[in-house]
Amino acid sequence: MAKVLTKTHRTWIEIDSRAAKKNYDTFRKLIGPVRPLRQAQGIKAQGKRGTQLWSVVKSNAYGHGIVVFSKLADRLGVNGFCVDSLVEGIRLRKEGIKKPILVLGPTLPALLHEAAKRKITITISNFDSLKVLTSIVAKKATIDGVPEFHLKIDTGMHRQGFYLADLPKVLKSLNSKSSILNSRLRGIYTHFASAKDTNYPTYTEKQFAEFQKAIKLFEDAGFPAEGGSASGGKNSITVHCAATGGTLVNPKYHLDAVRVGIGLYGLWPSKELEVQLGRKIKLYPVLSWRAVVSEVKNLEAGDYIGYDLVERAPRPMKMAVIPVGYWHGLPRSLSGIGEVLINGRRAKILGRISMDLIAVGPVTGVKPGDIATFIGKDGKENFLAFDVAARGGTIHYELLTRLNPLIERIIQ
User: Fold this and answer.
1) Residues 360-389: pLDDT tens digits?
2) Active-site hit among 58, 189, 253, 397
């Protein structure tokens, strides 16, 4: 594949479908199988329905390509998808994704009808948004144009969400305004602020306790959790709190669904979790980023390299030019300190990273058309996104999500 690509692509991103399958299998094993709801309805002896596995594909699937990766995850068997915006959700619908889609970020009032039309579930996290939804119901007196929604509960992250003290008022609004409104409520959820270290569970436990109080309030108001003993009722809702970290840290956080993002891409939320759990749980990086060498040239001792004359060749040597820069997502902070792999050997980034070009060296035996690797394996070497990001003074989440969406993602 790579040799063919060098004829038509200057740079590309490879998505390893076998690695993705291994990661999917790992998380499915962690949370257990999901029984069809019809088998669980009204049968207390069977216990909870099982935990659904939702693939978080916001921000261009963490740089992996929202369409490419979502179609792959769909085939693997995920139960649904989480996106940041309605725009992302609509794109998935246009690409043939039929499974549930939950928008985690805010949805503008003017787009609520489109969300309902596309059968995309939105998040309501404040009274202003709830009021807009209520007004639509009041005008229409029908579910037409009213999207399904989840309520987000702020248990300590202090971003989006209703506080626990807000919930009696929220429930009163749901139950008093219209049965149409409460019929569109499909779930409640929260998000953990620090579920990335098994040795420090205190704050996560505090948040989980708050969320359990919220669940109880909804149950008492006639909205039982989907997987609880009263599941299958008319107003049963999906309750969820765990992203990748929470899913790995403790099975009690799994509830009705888990929202797995970074883990399905084969990466750990933190180095602490990798150290603590890496011997039992194996994750396999899905993404590799490569480019072609476009030019090789000689440098004399003392020659300046790149913008601002910040680096000089210490001796005569060969350097390679690669048509990738910060526009493509290579952090400028890696100037003069980052490395690439060419033919299984490391080459240092020389001077400033430009918008579209970098120089690397010294190199030997390198020619135009050879493949350079920024993230991924080449020979015995393996550049992990976590390590590349750390060298550039950032985190792997940022590094990956800033990979230019115009770079073609290719399934391997």
Assistant:
1) 999 999 999 999 999 999 999 999 999 999
2) 58
- Residue 307 annotated to the active site: yes
Question: Which residue in 206, 297, 304, 307 is the catalytic one?
Answer: 307
Q: What is the pLDDT of residues 231-274, one digit of tens each?
A: 445 679 999 999 999 999 999 999 999 999 999 999 999 999 99
Neighbours of 230 (CB within 10 A): 15
Long-range pairs for 375-378: beta carbons < 8 A, 24 or more residues apart: 375/285, 375/287, 375/288, 375/289, 376/14, 376/285, 376/287, 376/288, 376/289, 376/290, 377/288, 378/341, 378/342, 378/343, 378/344
Q: Decide if 21 is catalytic.
A: no
Give the pTM.
0.93
The continuous run of DSSP H or E covering 55 comes out as: strand 52-56
Report which residue type is found at 339: E
Identify the three-state secondary structure at position 44. helix
Burial 77-95 (b: 16+ CB within 10 A, else e): ebebbbbbbbebbbbbeee
**Does 92 or 47 have the greater pLDDT score?**
92
